[in-house]
Amino acid sequence: MANLDRLIANTIRADVRAVANYIVADASGFIKLDAMENPYQLPDALRAELGSRLADAALNRYPVPSYARLKAAICEELGVPQGYDVILGNGSDELISIIDMATARQDKRAVVLAPVPAFVMYQRSAQFAGMDFIGVPLTADFQLDMPAMRAAIAQHEPAVLYLAYPNNPTGNLYDAADMAELIDLMGANDKGIAVVDVAYEPFAQTSFMEHLPEFPNLVVMRTLSKLGLAGIRLGYMSAAPALLAQFDKVRPPYNVNVLTQVAAEFALEHIDILDAQADSINAARTQMSAALAAIEGVEVFDSSANFLLFRVADSESVTAKLVAAKVLVKNLGKMHGLLANCIRVTVSTPDENAAFLSALTEALKS
Length: 366
Ligand SMILES: *Cc1c(COP(=O)(O)O)cnc(C)c1O
Fold this sequence. Notes:
By secondary structure, this protein is α/β, with parallel strands linked by helices. Helix content is 44%, strand content 15%. Strand 9 and strand 10 form a beta hairpin. The chain is globular. It binds pyridoxal-5'-phosphate.
């Protein structure tokens, strides 16, 4: 009879066996400020209408794999330039693995480059695709370290560069001229693709989508998660049609399910509501940032996203006290040297933000 430990040792890759599981805390009973979710739902009347649309979805059929109607709505409503199409992913997490799978060549190990600290999936996906990940530290004020980035591109000739704009977990926008220079450098000699991930576009109110025609090697990726639809899992990306067509070959044909498709089409018909929610979150961010700055012992960083990064004397004990007060935040103190004693908090409703601020004030007193 097979022994499971030996079976795993003989079959599962060593680097996969070595990684820790992606741990998501159980949030029931907590104020959940750890995952950049939008706290608002659609209004009741719209939810009822969505319910009847979902009831009409043909659950017995596979999705139509062209997803033509949803893609057209995305291009129309979300600022994809004329002449550019999108492909859809089950969250942008899936799009990242599609890009990596398509570029992880077999004759020599390909390299993924990203400034760090960055969104963790850039590294994880590269590893699982069998690519080398090179992380170049940001400067102390979380901007791109241009000499180091130029040197890394020259030395490693990365197949893919990932830039989140604004960056997660730091929340800031990089200098757009620096980004353009790096995209150009990646494209020099036609050696590399640059991916700009604009997950937080609704809060930054700036994108990179409109720059697609300027850079043949540019991919712009976005998710609907942070806009208020994290539960439906939908991301999309655009690029020059010939490049996009290559990625589309790697995409599982029915990767977006019919319920997601219907819900996304419905949400895009009511995009003004989601945009208004983003506006309230932005206003709340300004208030919360000022409130954090006024607390002694807190250093808060500028953010163009729906979260704030701040530093305290001891992020581990403060996070533990917040959890004891039923407020979930993300302690990033151990993620990267630049984030020593930093905590990331999602901006939420005025009530939840006030509850967080008072719990934090208490935590810093005791
Ligand atoms: C949250 C986040 C994503 C993940 O998006 P999903 O569509 O939910 O998979 C992608 N990129 C960045 C930078 C993020 O912060």
